[in-house]
Amino acid sequence: MKPSALRITRLACALAALGASLSAQAQYGHSSCLDDLPYGGFSHADAGAGSPYANGCIRALSDGRAAVLLPSALEGAGRAPGDGTLRRHAWGFLDQNGRLAIPPIFEAAGDFRHGLAPVKWQGKWGFIDTRGRMAVRPQFDAVQGYAEIGLAVATQDGRQRLIDRRGNAVGEPFDPGVIGLHLQDGVPALATVEYKMEYRSSTGERRFGDAGIRLAKLYGKDLYVAVTDQDKYGLLDKDWNWVLDPVYQDISAPGEDGALATAYGPRGAVLLDAQGKPIGEDGGYQDLSPLGKAFWSAELARGSYAILDAAGAPVAKLNADEAYGSRRYGDTLLYPSGGRLMALAPGLAEPLALGAGLSAAADDQGYVLFTNAESIPAGLLTPKGIWLHGAAAPAWLAEIGRMEVRQGKLWLFKDGGLLNVLDGDGRALLQPEAVQAAQEMALKQLPLDVPGGALGVLSQGHCHCGSDTGAGLVLADGSIAADPSWSAVIPLDGASDYDDYGRPARSELKAEQLRYAAETADGVRLLDASGKPMDLPAQQHIGAFRHGYALAYADGESRMIDRDGKTYALPDYFETDIVAPGVVRFLETAAEDAPWGLYDFLAGKEISPPRYRDIGEFQDGQAVASLGPDRAGVIDLQGRWIVPASHHGAERVNAQVWKVQQAGPQPDEYTRPAALFNAQGRALTAFLPGLRAGMDDGAIVAGDGKRRWIVSPDGADALDMEDAAYARLGDWMEIRRAPRSGYLDARGQWQIAPGAAVAGTFRGSPARALLTDDDGARLIDAQGKTVAALPAGDWSWPRDSATLLRRYTAAGKQRTDYAGLDGKVRFTVDGHASGYSEGFAVTQLSSSAMRAIDAKGVLTGPAFDALGPLREGLAPVYTDRAYGYADAHGRLAILPAYDTVSPFRDRRAVVSTMDMSMIIDPTGRQVARVAMECGVRALYGSHNQRLWPLTLPRRCRR
Questions:
Q1: Which of 96, 290, 500, 876 could be joined to 868 by an S-S link, Cβ 3.0–4.6 Å?
Q2: How many C-beta atoms surround the C-beta of residue 701 within 10 A?
Q3: What is the overall mean pLDDT for the chain?
Q4: What value does the mean pLDDT take over residues 808-819?
Q5: Is the dihedral of CA 608, 614, 619, 620 positive or negative?
Q6: How far apart are CA 355 and CA 661, in angstroms?
Q7: Nearest to 191 by CA among 692, 649, 749
């Protein structure tokens, strides 16, 4: 198990063992004298003899008092119904001799801790002392017991506060995101904080999941799918107002392309538009499924289906056979009906009859080619529903042998070459001369997909057929721009080594901005978007455009050109590269270690002299630069350092945020510490090994697995999430925090701030506590300073134990190490062992039986099914399916006869069966007993004399 998972598991068990606040304790008990222990409260070797039950009719003694539920002293036993329901019973307390020290008058009660016990009176909680006097008047909705520092946690008006022993508020109010704080003993006191699920908006507004609503996912841009406590789904706006009432079993999110969402509710399945308005509420739809992006399939009664368009309007109804025979090609749906093939295509208001005897032979992105019974192409359906068939089809349709979609258009080929290019409206785009040229030459696609741009480049093919057309462009209108003097035409936008068979890349350029270069015998000519030579003399070389400029070379000089063909002079540098609009980096010489400088060719001046080992591409006015190993940083267009040149390297996260690596030797580059910096050079995170950063729903997420930050895209803010889990939901962020543990002083101030760790209570002098987190286990002092780092392993510090324990498995056997507070192992025993008490500990053997071990770690005494810690010379044991007590030699001192028992304290223990609870002395003699009599609980003394109630119900029969 990973350390973080182990930490969460331990915290969950610890909180369960602490129990719920006393507001949840029932006013009335039940007739059984056994109470269930919380999960995890009995499974640990240090927790006792392993019973899953707690004493119920007499609770365990604490501060010499034991809580007990008896007929109320305020109403009299005669008014108790005597039906076993324990109505008109109340809580009081016995002393250790079984006498009724505090009469049963309270609606509920907790155990005494440090002299005070919580009690419920007239619906509110307060505290009494051991003599029954009210120490803190009842005023709270819920309370926890007092800790050693003299503080308790109380809830009033839905908010928890710390209170002192007079009931006065202490310390600062808890953050609204805190759902609970659990206070334990020790000085300072261990305090575990539980958090609500929180929603935080981009403006800093906070909402919490305890309001009965949680966000499930984003719905479009401004709405949210939300779930109520009753698991009903609806839609909320950004102000958390319902725009669609929560009556649905589920709601999907709309598609990013604007597709409708689905919802399932009391009236069946419906579609939802972008504003959350239901569509088709009266359709009787049992289920809804998308058919591509253009249609929906709505299941109706008796196996029939309605086909809905993208807006949810019905366009066709299919019976079961038609639906079974349907097929989808892109966003076009084909189905048989009455011996004919029917088609539903986007934009068509009703089905289109294609005819009989046709079958789909090929399809590509919604274009479907059909053949007849003789397998000859007989029709072509476009994604817009244009049907080319019969007289509406081009004469060459039957010659189609292959088809391919390029840049959204359909390229049709026959065995001898290209036939033509069709658009979605079924129009043939190539003019006859372009078709002829494509037959004689190779037609290559372009590296960029720009609407309105040229369709392709004509170049000499492998056959060298002797075409006198020359290289050129096939333009968007189907014409060609070519010249016999052009031997090749090269695109100057996009990858210079583009692959004719790759998918063209999208670009933000407009069609009229595209530029090409034509190679001729006289040099290279610059062409505009329509293939016309521009007013620039032939060059020996023209490079690709970058940042709006290209490098040209002619007459022994290099110069820069813009898209209009205007030239800009460059100094006589050895090498130049365009790194920003109007800016090049340059090398003055060919020397191997020659430094780079920056030059502004628009202004004709040097920005920065040659001093950089490297300069990267500028984006938004900044680039990575280096002065040498471990001297990297970020510069602006004036050559000024934004992030100092004192780092190992830097890389972009986005236009405004950099990930910067720490300098210095590292054994593993993968874990080299890194931090995020913004465009102003301010650090947004700490340097952490293995820091990773990426985009998540518009925000930047960074972390190393232990700590996390959410950074605004502009780099202005960074929210330290520590170990919280989160999810982006549009303008809101869902935050889930695991419980955290810290230490409070007697003023209610954090002496050691809460952190993601399994923390133990402070004990001893000087005070020490055991703390375990992802970095391992260690002992800390009262200021949180580490005084001893422990070796790797699962460490614990049992209560009242002078040694630390480490449990593990080696060679298939369970082992337990005992270590001093310096972390040094003193000795090791076999089995899963407990801490020492009165010179003995307990270990669980491989057989699951338990035996005592002496101070040297040697097994002693007999084995028992379960064995608890030795207290006052007696240890709880489980054998023969019952609990009793054994002495230090393992001899049974009190025979097993009970379902649960407590350790002895001050020569008293509490034991219980299903029918009764008793206080006993070390000989096993009854001191007091509580059991049911005549349908009420009755208290009996050491001689079985009834002490309470003084009278039994009137209808009781002796």
A1: 876
A2: 18
A3: 89
A4: 91
A5: negative
A6: 67
A7: 749
Q: What is the pLDDT of residue 10?
A: 43
Nearest to 203 by CA among 679, 727, 719: 719
pLDDT at 43 over 60: no
Residue type, 600: D
Q: Dump the DSSP string for 147-173.
A: -TTS-EEEEETTEEEEE-TTS-EESSP
Mean pLDDT across 424-435 = 90
Q: How far apart are CA 796 and CA 791, in angstroms?
A: 12
Three-state SS sequence of 490-501: EECCCCCCCCCC
| Predicted TM-score (pTM) of this structure | 0.71
What per-residue confidence (pLDDT) applies to 720? Answer: 83
* 804 contact partners, CB below 8 Å, separation of at least 6: 770, 790, 795, 796, 797, 818, 819, 820, 821, 823
d(CA 473, CA 531) in angstroms, rounded, equals 6
At 286, list the tokens. Answer: 């049992």
Q: How far apart are CA 373 and CA 608, in angstroms?
A: 74
For the residues 505-510, what does the mean pLDDT come to?
82
Residue 526 has pLDDT above 70, yes or no: yes
| pLDDT of amino acid 24 | 34
Q: Assign 3-class secondary structure to 607-643.
A: EEEEEECEECCCECCEEEEECCCCCEEEEECCCCEEE
* Pairwise CA distance, residues 483 & 516, whole Å: 14
CA pair distance 27, 818, nearest whole angstrom = 45
DSSP 791-831: PSSEEE--TT-SSEEEEEEETTEEEEEEE-TTS-EEEEEES
Is pLDDT above 80 for 467?
Answer: no
For 270, other C-beta atoms within 10 Å of its C-beta total 24
Three-class secondary structure assignment of 557-609: EEEEECCCCCEEECCCCCEEEEEECCEEEEECCCCCCCCEEEEECCCCEEEEE
Q: Rounded distance, CA 481 to CA 648, Å?
A: 51
Q: From CA 664, how far away is CA 421, in angstroms rounded? A: 59
Instruction: Measure the CA–CA gap between 763 and 784, rounded to whole angstroms.
Output: 14
Q: Which two tokens stand for residue 264?
A: 């399932």
Place of tokens 């600062």: 172
Compute the distance between CA of residue 836 and CA of residue 830 in angstroms, rounded to an integer.
Answer: 15
Residue tagged 């110069």 (tokens): 559
Please give the Cα distance from 342 to 356 (Å, whole number): 9
Would you call 372 helix, strand, or coil by DSSP?
A: coil
* Cα radius of gyration (the chain): 41
Say how many C-beta atoms besides its own lie within 10 A of residue 70's C-beta.
25
Residue 215 CB contacts under 8 Å (≥ 6 apart), including other chains: 199, 224, 225, 226, 236, 729, 732, 734
Q: What is the DSSP string of 55-99?
A: E-SBPPPBTTEEEEEEE-TTT-GGGS--SSS-TTEEEEEEETTS-
Mean pLDDT within 360-377: 93
The candidate with the shortest Cα–Cα distance to 860, out of 873, 848, 851, is 851
DSSP code at position 537:
-
> What CA dihedral angle connects 881, 885, 891 and 897, to 10 degrees?
-40
Cα–Cα distance between 625 and 635 in angstroms, integer? Answer: 6
Side chain identity at residue 796, one-letter code: S
pLDDT in tens, 827-878: 999 999 999 999 999 999 888 899 999 998 999 999 999 999 999 999 999 9
Q: What is the band of 504 on the pLDDT scale with cuts at 50, 70, 90?
A: low
The two structure tokens encoding residue 390? 């019969």
Least confident window among 420-434, 548-562, 723-737:
723-737
* Beta-ladder partners of 234: 226
Largest CA distance in the chain: 128
